[in-house]
Write a structure and sequence with these properties.
The protein is α+β, with helices and mostly antiparallel strands and 458 residues long. Helix content is 43%, strand content 15%.
Length: 458
């Protein structure tokens, strides 16, 4: 796909439509539209409300939201709410919130937090290296090639579970006290833009070196050294080893000297992350059910692929329940922009009546159509920590631990309805021990490889 100047693109579209004789919006049509709206009392009534009030507040239906209150029949106890602040590190925080529980248990602590700054540092460095490597690999392709466009689109803070796994395996983890957040790691917009500008500049230089027949690897290493320095200025120099002291819940003092981040993970967390698999529910034609697929995301490590097993919504839900009943929280990805109220801590289509305040329009779409039309996809990762069942044994609400701090929701916890879960939850991380024999057998099949830009829709 070739990028065009917006003005020339619009002119091209206009000429094309005229040449093809496509139906245009006429003044007669506008007149009919205006006359009909002018006679509609709801346009004035709802318009008056919309003129002065946040749309989400107008749409909120408190009595429906109240139906989601109450305790949960299955609940995993967690130790504290984290805050990613103004950064896109939800996927990383969701994983750390699961790892944190193992660390707190093994350290004997009531509350414990891992450093998001430490992993974010290496996440940026690995993403940058991936762009540089792909710029070298695809240097022979024209600039308007879809892959080259994808490479130069760059990366942000976002990511997937598999990327967090790769970071932890390679770099380990550290307590938050060892490498606390800096302002830049919590407010990443400006730094990301400057960092990405430098990465793009470097990628173009490496591309030119390849086309000139010059080995680019020495220059690539120099570029990475500069990027490492820039990150050290913004986030702080990452620790290679550290001392850590703490008191357990019984008041006993402990101390570690000179422990490395990888040693800390192995000694105090130790989860075998290779036993977890991403289960998705993407009911689209390009991502077949009962298969697993893989793609290489620009934001992952250069050697890594993202791997997902695509199952029905019912199977995804059953696996989440099995893991919660086993006492373990579930990392999951959903569309947090769909029918959510941040202040009330609710995600529920019945609690936000947008159709009503827009005059009775029909906004309903199937999950498949929402994905295919780009109307919805996974935008946020959190952890499931509870589920409740009605008198028939059917789930009716799910408890969520978010990473937006304690000032939102119910002290950082949210609830979603079963209706929301089925329509807007797209993926979950499940320990393979919960998979059936048939589901495990699917992992022996040849994976379906998709283009990375098709990962959220098809």
């Amino acid at each position: 796909m070739q990028r065009s100047n917006p003005a020339s693109f619009n002119l091209l579209i206009s000429i094309s439509y005229n040449e093809k004789g496509n139906e245009m919006i006429t003044t007669e049509m506008i007149g009919k539209f205006h006359e009909k709206c002018a006679e509609d009392a709801a346009v004035y009534t709802l318009g008056a409300a919309m003129a002065k009030t946040e749309m989400k507040d107008l749409a909120f239906v408190p009595m429906n939201a109240a139906k989601l209150s109450g305790e949960f029949s299955v609940e995993v106890t967690t130790h504290g709410i984290t805050a990613q602040q103004r950064s896109g590190r939800c996927w990383m925080f969701a994983m750390m919130n699961i790892l944190r529980e193992e660390a707190a248990k093994n350290l004997g602590m009531e509350k414990f937090t891992l450093s998001g700054n430490y992993l974010a540092f290496y996440d940026k460095l690995e993403k940058a290296n991936n762009v540089l490597e792909m710029a070298i690999e695809y240097a022979d392709r024209p600039m308007n090639d879809r892959m080259m466009e994808y490479v130069l689109e760059g990366f942000g803070d976002g990511g997937y579970w598999d990327m967090a796994v790769d970071l932890v395996k390679k770099y380990g983890v550290v307590p938050e006290s060892v490498m606390p957040d800096s302002y830049q790691s919590c407010h990443t917009e400006t730094f990301r833009k400057m960092f990405m500008t430098l990465v793009r500049k470097d990628a173009l230089e490496l591309r030119r070196l390849v086309l000139e027949g010059i080995d680019p690897q020495e220059r690539r290493e120099e570029m990475l050294a500069e990027l490492y320095r820039v990150e050290s200025i913004a986030f702080g120099l990452p620790v290679e080893s550290f001392d850590f002291s703490w008191r357990d819940k019984d008041g006993k003092f402990h101390e570690e000297y000179g422990i490395t981040p990888k040693q800390f993970y192995e000694k105090y967390i130790g989860l075998d992350l290779g036993q977890y698999i991403t289960i998705t529910n993407h009911p689209t034609d390009a991502l077949p059910m009962d298969h697993y697929y893989q793609f290489h995301y620009i934001g992952s490590m250069a050697e890594s692929n993202i791997v997902n097993l695509n199952l029905t919504q019912q199977e995804l839900e059953d696996l989440c329940i099995a893991q919660l009943k086993d006492g373990e929280a579930v990392w999951f990805g959903c569309d947090s922009g769909a029918f959510g109220d941040r202040a009330k801590g609710v995600w529920d289509p019945d609690s936000l009546n947008y159709e009503g305040i827009l005059g009775g329009v029909d906004l309903s779409m199937t999950k498949k159509d929402r994905l295919m039309s780009h109307d919805s996809f996974a935008t946020h990762a959190m952890i499931l920590v509870g589920v409740n069942f009605d008198q028939d044994g059917t789930p009716n609400r799910w408890k969520i631990e978010n990473s937006w701090g304690e000032d939102v929701g119910k002290k950082g916890y949210f609830v979603c309805s079963e209706k929301y879960f089925r329509e807007f939850v797209y993926e979950a991380i499940i320990n393979k021990k919960h998979l059936s024999a048939e589901q495990l057998a699917m992992l022996d099949k040849q994976p379906v490889t998709i283009n990375p830009w098709e990962s959220d829709w098809s």
